[in-house]
Amino acid sequence: MISVVCNGAQMRGFSSVRVTRALDQFCATYALQAIPENGAWLSTFPEDEIVIVENDEVVVKGYNDSCQPSFDSSGCSFAVSGREVVKDLVDCPPETVNFENKKVDEIARIICAEFDTAFDGAGGADVGAPLAKFSGDPGKSAYEVMMDACRLRRCIPITDGVGHVKLDGGRYQSASVDLVQGENVLSASGNFSTKDRFKVYRVVA
Predict the structure, then answer these.
(1) Which candidate, 45, 51, 123, places its Cα nearest to that of 85?
(2) What is the tens place of the pLDDT at every residue in 144-200?
């Protein structure tokens, strides 16, 4: 069972709930679709806090980016989209960009603290020796500065969907279950293409 909680109160009426988490987008995203009764506006607005729960487990905690009501002669609809509570790390630059003799997890911890974001350490990464000197580009976001530092130690910053950041270095174990079509894999697709392949590649140094 999936439930949507807005500012502490449960909301009903959503016909579709989609949550996306991926290594290449840092913070989780969500998209909600509803068909309100009698054309009513659902009681949620941009920057409202949204918590999506599945079977008593919080899947994502975030803030609305946009709310889009629409109607025409055939009916009305209401769409909501948002991102995890750490979205400010993606949108805003950090105050501190110059570091000396800091390990990458210390750099990440300092940046997260500036945004009141919990940092859970580097349990999945080997952060190695401190960086003698690291300077982030002033125009980059906090996430980009952390990512630039982490690349030097072959790790990446990731989140858990509810606002906690940690460093991961690809130390994985085999899953305890198999992926079986029709059981825990209900849909899938592939694309095998030779588009944009060329006969000759030239590298100019």
Answers:
(1) 51
(2) 999 999 999 999 999 999 999 999 986 667 778 899 999 999 999 999 988 888 878
C-alpha angle 14-54-16 in degrees, rounded to nearest 5: 25
Out of 11-25, 31-45, 98-112, the most confident range is: 98-112
In terms of C-beta distances under 8 Å and separation of at least 24 residues, what long-range contacts does 175-183 make, across chains too? none
Strand 118-119 and strand 164-168: pairing? parallel
CB within 8 Å of 152: residues ≥ 6 apart: 104, 131, 134
For 55, the 3-state DSSP assignment is: coil
- Give the Cβ contact number of residue 72 at 10 Å: 7
**What confidence tier does 5 reach under pLDDT thresholds 50, 70, 90?**
very high
- pTM equals 0.78
Residue 64: closest CA among 40, 89, 42, 47: 47
Total residues belonging to the chain: 205
| Cα–Cα nearest to 42, from 64, 24, 73 | 64
- The Cα 201–Cα 205 span in angstroms is 13
Residues 89, 63: Cα–Cα separation, whole Å: 13
